[in-house]
Design brief:
single chain; L-arginine/glycine Amidinotransferase, Chain A; 9 helices; 17 strands; 22% helix; agmatine deiminase activity; Agmatine deiminase family protein; Peptidyl-Arg-deiminase_porph; protein-arginine deiminase activity
Length: 342
């Protein structure tokens, strides 16, 4: 297929950088700050070895020493933040005739579950602070509630999403499914929107963001979480999700190649509540995939599977147990920018 003039690029397209929003004592990380900071340090080092890091923080004096130094691959902007989920408060980037356009949506704490007044302003604040390359425009869609973790793009006109998220209350409930699909097609210049109606993760606050369940790994390949234990609470819903994935077709009417990711053993918090561990929540960067691992027996197989999907990229396992204690993982805390943005 000939690439569209305007489209939402796939994550594996060449990147200029990645945004992280740094945790501090005023975020929800306050209870496990000592264990989550090393995760952010690991991610920051891996990103900066390959591309630019746009680091948002409340006060740069709290950053580790290596992030205090002036570096070519480091951009720091200070501003108020509520929390650190850059996937959902960072800008989404569209390409129009090869040139990037930043999109600003309303972020309301996943349907007003959490305070988000400062996070909702991060994208316009970054733009005003000249964090992006001169001349890159910012298009305002702040009348529409949306998070970057809610859609996946194959870079060829297909968007993958979940009805549980985009049709949930306190987001855009005044709009019908058809109206939301029309908005997505118009906003992202998409040819086809693929809806998944099943699948969830216990402990997830996002109402089933697609990046916790199924991911495009190439224009014709989807990796998805598969539960094989009939006694697991997720088994039925994920079986239905798999069946629905098998019926989906791409922008040209062809079925997708489906690759199953293992389902990690149950991990619980100190109150016995299950945490949303998933191998789908990886981040693709230039020459690498930053991959969440959880210290369970499925880690090795999951790394092997994702390595087969990205044979030309280094797979970098990152301990993500601290991240899921606040109900997200690697993809949730990051937002990539295509070439030309930073």
């Amino acid at each position: 297929m000939t690439k569209q003039v305007s489209y939402l690029p796939a994550e594996w397209a060449e990147q200029s950088g990645v945004q992280l929003t740094w945790p501090d004592e005023q975020t929800d990380w306050v209870t496990n700050l000592d264990e989550v900071i090393p995760v952010y340090v690991h991610m920051a080092r891996e990103i900066m070895a390959r591309e630019k890091l746009l680091l948002v923080c409340r006060d740069k004096s709290i950053l580790p020493d290596f992030l205090q130094e002036e570096q070519e691959n480091l951009i720091i902007r200070e501003m108020p933040v509520n929390d650190t989920w850059a996937r959902d408060h960072g800008p989404v980037t569209l390409l129009e005739e090869g040139e990037p356009v930043l999109l600003n949506f309303r972020f309301n704490g996943w349907g007003m579950k959490f305070a988000a007044c400062d996070d909702n302003q991060i994208t316009p604040n970054l733009y005003q602070a000249q964090a992006f390359r001169a001349g890159v425009p910012l298009r305002d869609y702040s009348y529409f509630t949306f998070e970057g973790g809610a859609v996946e793009s194959n870079g060829q006109g297909c968007l993958l999403t979940t009805s549980e998220c985009l049709l949930s209350k306190n987001r855009n409930e005044h709009l019908s499914k058809n109206e939301i699909e029309f908005f997505l097609k118009t906003c992202f210049q998409a040819e086809k929107v693929l809806w998944l109606d099943h699948g969830f993760l216990e402990g997830d606050d996002t109402d089933s963001h697609i990046d916790t369940l199924a991911r495009f790994c190439s224009e014709d390949t989807i990796a998805y979480v598969k539960c094989t234990d009939p006694s697991d609470i997720h088994f039925g819903a994920l079986q239905k999700m798999e069946a629905q994935l098998q019926q989906l077709t791409d922008q040209d009417g062809h079925p997708f190649k489906l690759v199953a990711l293992p389902f990690p053993d149950s991990i619980v918090d100190e109150d016995g509540q299950r945490l949303p561990a998933t191998y789908a929540n990886f981040l693709i960067v230039n020459q690498a995939v930053l991959f969440p691992v959880y210290g369970v027996r499925q880690d090795e197989e999951a790394v092997r599977v994702v390595a087969s999907l990205f044979p030309d990229r280094e797979i970098v396992p990152i301990n993500s147990v601290p991240l899921i204690k606040q109900h997200g993982s690697i993809h949730c805390v990051s937002m990539q920018f295509p070439a030309g943005v930073l």
